[in-house]
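Postdoc handover notes: sequence design on the structure in folder B. Input tokens:
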């Protein structure tokens, strides 16, 4: 499982405050903790007013890149913002995201052509998030075919089927699984990703719901996930699911994670 660490995101109140107060130490600490917990990419999302988004992202990227070697996942709804900060990334990472909304692919694909960068592609368009599976698959086809024109192969694309809240759509997980299966039948090398928190919107015990979503999504074949790698219960779910599915010989990864304290016993503060 490819882990995209979610914690450097201005929608989280403590991060919003750190951005406002230019608290470098707070952001650096989040970068180091997530890298040590095993994140493969670190999401950076400013979530500020549009006029300061570029400057804020550059500030975040600079702190993260000076603290750790983990590649960035540059997260902005505005492709023009991504285009502006892109040259300041030190190593290939992940763009979060394109979709068929506006001309996002047309801005992002040319800048990652001929690089090792990968891209998250959301299955939505100018009509919004589809209710059905077929429209999600159709949008995927359009985005993958456009990518081919820039020599961006399916293995560099992470399709995000945009999971709906279970409370609003009882078929939400089932739709995610079916979309994943159909997309992978069309493009076996493609990756499928998801955030974990949408599923539990409006429900009590959200983190428990998110953990069970993770188990079922891994079983279905999800390749990457945007999650909190410092959440011990979530990471335990991830390792134990891989082990249960026969993907962890001698439970080596599980045991190593336990020994290295990634999933170890809860530490009680003295
Ligand atoms: N798909 C894509 N990108 C995305 C999302 C997605 N980016 C934003 C979002 N969804 C994923 N990011 C977050 C960031 C923080 C939280 C949830 C989603 C969050 N974090 C809690 C915190 O840090 O306080 C803790 C969560 C926990 O312990 O598990 O709520 O869907 N492409």
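Designed sequence:
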């Amino acid at each position: 499982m490819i882990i995209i660490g979610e914690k450097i995101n201005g929608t989280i109140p403590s991060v919003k405050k750190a951005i406002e107060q230019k608290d470098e130490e707070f952001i650096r600490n989040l970068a180091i903790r997530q890298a040590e917990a095993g994140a493969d990419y670190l999401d950076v999302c400013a979530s500020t007013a549009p006029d300061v988004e570029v400057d804020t992202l550059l500030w975040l990227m600079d702190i993260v890149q000076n603290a750790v070697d983990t590649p960035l996942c540059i997260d902005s709804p505005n492709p023009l913002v991504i285009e502006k900060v892109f040259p300041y990334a030190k190593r290939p990472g992940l763009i979060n995201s394109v979709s068929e909304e506006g001309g996002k692919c047309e801005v992002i694909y040319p800048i990652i052509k001929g690089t090792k960068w990968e891209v998250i592609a959301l299955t939505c368009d100018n009509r919004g998030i589809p209710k059905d599976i077929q429209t999600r698959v159709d949008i995927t086809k359009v985005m993958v075919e456009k990518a081919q024109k820039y020599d961006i192969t399916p293995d560099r694309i992470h399709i995000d089927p945009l999971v709906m809240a279970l409370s609003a759509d009882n078929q939400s997980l089932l739709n995610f699984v079916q979309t994943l299966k159909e997309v992978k039948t069309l493009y076996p090398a493609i990756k499928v990703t998801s955030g974990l928190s949408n599923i539990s919107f409006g429900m009590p015990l959200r983190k428990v719901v998110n953990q069970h979503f993770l188990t079922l999504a891994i079983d279905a074949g999800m390749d990457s996930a945007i999650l909190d790698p410092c959440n011990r219960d979530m990471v335990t779910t991830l390792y134990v699911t891989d082990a249960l599915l026969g993907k962890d010989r001698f439970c080596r990864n599980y045991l190593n994670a336990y020994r290295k304290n990634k999933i170890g016993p809860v530490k009680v503060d003295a």
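Context for whoever picks this up: The first strand starts at residue 2 and ends at 9. Don't rerun without checking with the PI first.
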